[in-house]
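Let's practice the habit of predicting before peeking. Look at the sequence and jot down your guess about where helices and strands might fall. Then scroll down.
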Amino acid sequence: MAASSSVALSSDNGFVAFLRHAKHNPSAVLLAVQLGGILVYPFLGDSAGGRAVFGVLSVVVLTLAALAVRMTPALSWVAALLGVPVLAFTLLEGLRPDDGGIVLTSSVLHAVFYFYTAYALIKYMFDDNVVTTDELYATGATFTVVAWGFAYVYAAVQVIWPGSFTAAVDPEGTRTWVELLFLSVTTLTSTGLSDIVPVQEHARSFVMIEQIAGMLYIALVIARIMALISARAARRARD
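Done guessing? Here is the structure:
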């Protein structure tokens, strides 16, 4: 009996420790959910159930993004103002996935929300000259947030300009969310696997913007964080 109580207490303490870590490191949780979403999305498919699960996952990601913004110097009310219509159109898109107007509006709102979140996280990392554990997680979370933002830009682009993207499989079809996210990640990381390709000029323009954004992120944000880490290590060595 005592052993069972000890195990339960240990589990409770572990859960409390996790919640405390999550509270002080929201960027870590956001990054984990974003990466987990990459693995989950392929299982959802285009069924009604899949769209419902996708909608729930989107709400979770949006909530975590809003919590991450609250930890930054950016204005929380701006995130809330953007988040409410994004949440509404996420649910509408799940109910009416073939409505071009809803998909377009939802994609634009999502892109704006994610880009604002990325701005807030970058401002958070540049706010002082001290690197915290959460700021290290924020470097990865910001990268994924930017990738998600451009994926929604591409979703809007193919609504406005049908046939903007082609692929090795079903080249004439409309690209799925997973395909657009894959294109965004490979573009932002400069991997460029080229199995999903922008073929219209407007689509190529936005892809080029993301390529430049990816290079600037590595050159400015990652370089600064690494410089601060090196400076902290040097200070510790002197002490």
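How did you do? Confidence is low (pLDDT under 50) at residues 7-11.
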